[in-house]
Prior knowledge:
The protein has 705 residues and is an alpha+beta fold. Helix content is 35%, strand content 22%. Helix 3 (90-118) packs antiparallel against helix 4 (124-137).
Amino acid sequence: MADNRNSIGxxxxxxxxxxxxxxxxxxxxxxTMLPPRKDxxxxxxxxxxxxxxxxxxxxxxxxxxxxxxxxxxxxEYRLYMDxxxxxxxxxxxxxxxxxxxxxxxxxxxxxxxxxxxxxxxREANWFRSRLLEGKKRGGFAWRIxxxxxxxxxxxxxxxxxxxRESALKGGFNPEVIIQRKKPYGSLASRTLGxxxxxxxxxxxxxxxxxxxxxxxKPGISHRAKVRQSRLTFVDKEPENGHDxxxxxxxxxxxxxxxxxxxxxxxxxxxxGVAVVMETKTGDVKAIVNLQxxxxxxxxxxxxxxxxxxxxxxxxxxxxxxxxxxxxxxxKKTDRIDTGSGIYMMHGRxxxxxxxxxxxxxxxxxxxxxxxxxxxxxxxxxxxxYHDDPDRFVRGLNRIGVGIPLDLPFNGKGEPRVRHPKKxxxxxxxxxxxxxxxxxxxxxxxLPPISTLTFYNAIANGGRMVKPRFIKAExxxxxxxxxxxxxxxxxxxxKPSSLADIQDILEKVVSQGLGKKAGNKGLFKVSGxxxxxxxxxxxxxxxxxxxxxxVSFCGYFxxxxxxxxxxxxxxxxxxxxxxxxxxxxxxxxxxQYIMAKGMxxxxxxxxxxNSVFVPNMTKGDPKLSRSLLRQLDLSEEGVxxxxxxxxxxNKVPDxxxxxxxxxxxxxxxxGLKVRLTGMGSxxxxxxxxxxxxxxxxxxxxxxxxx
Length: 705
């Protein structure tokens, strides 16, 4: 009985202790939940436990046509310091805070000096003051450096005292910012596009147009404190964005940028555009958009080649003549009188560029384009379509001029081709002078890439293809989707009309105003010059502000076109010449591209021990040396004669040249040429160095070796 009484007493004592313990726990919980401790611990709980935290997906890259990186995502870091320790355990919190404060005081000078070496734009004293200010405020997430740190800089910071500790112990923690980087700087930057600063939101260009593919899908996680560690638990893995292979060729883009930029500086231009397109596919191999900034330098500010609407000027004359040829209302050999360079067109004077020198007189249809006669084109079109201008506009639509291209860019310019039966806010009422001026490239508005697309169709046997900027979608280096070549029109005109216009465009360069777009006979070039006066806002063309858009649009090589190209330059004042100012840029780009492709296949060599040495004819030695370097050949044993060493007013030595090259060289200097025999030039009846008399005939005797 005594033992039972003792046992009951012990049980009662244990039960009372348990009840007291339960009451203590309940009281502590209530104390924690009530103000002011409630707010504090809710804040702590938010810091250590978070739900539905998005996990950003890695944004896909934009690649060049050969796989080189054009735009990629790289991490950068914002650097923070927590000077206050958070822990629910008051004893552990006090202990950790004491250690952190002690280590900070002991190492602050070393930390400041180390940061100054890592970030040389700030001195050690600045970092010391910054750290002390943060310590004084005693808060969380104190920014210790105002800029972004690279991964290498961040890792160097992790080597410094205190900062090398874990975030929970030392308080140093980064915020990762994924930044889009362009290894090639500003090349094609407006076309490639950009994101908003410190954001994954796309702003412009291909970045915006293909944002859903590049962005991917974010994942979901939550974070909680487990014992003494903060752990992140992934609920849903992110799906990284896919890469896109563009059509851009880095090398062509670079040479187009440099050639255009140099010319803009030379002529003190306001802006310039250059676009190179692959003939068969419509692949845009280069697209340059430069505008002059306040510092006098040129930068990519907007995608003018796609968005800007300009009156195309004389490059539009090709379309006018092609419509008339295709309708059968003119023939290539027809003749038109352009008079003395001034012609009254329905009461308004139409002028040719050489009107002060007496004009061109009578020209063939081919000659009208070769010498870009405003009078010739406007008279031909007015005579054929004056009573039915709607037929002319329908013809433009038939050959693909003015068709919206539906390119993958926001803010793209839609062509505006005036129509006699349609009125709008862009055009005044149709008048008798509308058709003549429209035929020479005024009273219509086209973005440069639309003009190029039309010329590319001429080069492509009449087949008009849509400009292509993206070739393929890729995942983990594998192509998962290809973007096909899109045909806009299978044929823009009759085969006979196409052959006529191709022949005329080749003559524009070989013997017309487009000579400077050529290349001294290395390969044939076809195209058309353009010079258009730009209206000064609503003030018209004669407001005292004279601005011009000069251009050249064409393709090469003429016999088997591989590429088309347009160059446009906006400038103020005279001289303003499409052939003389845009033509040389076209020439430089085309020569680089053709030189780049002039490698001989080793499989074509009959003897593996033979050495391939090209036959070099007389021509530009600088280009010849460039070709030899491309072929990895020595100049030894190769004769690099130079016609340019003889002044332009002297007869060059053309002996040994082929007939076509010799005729080209002599006609460029104003001589007429008569040929006898066959083969290469053996004799010339005017000795080299003779003073040239313009229009005089030189006889070349040809012989087969």
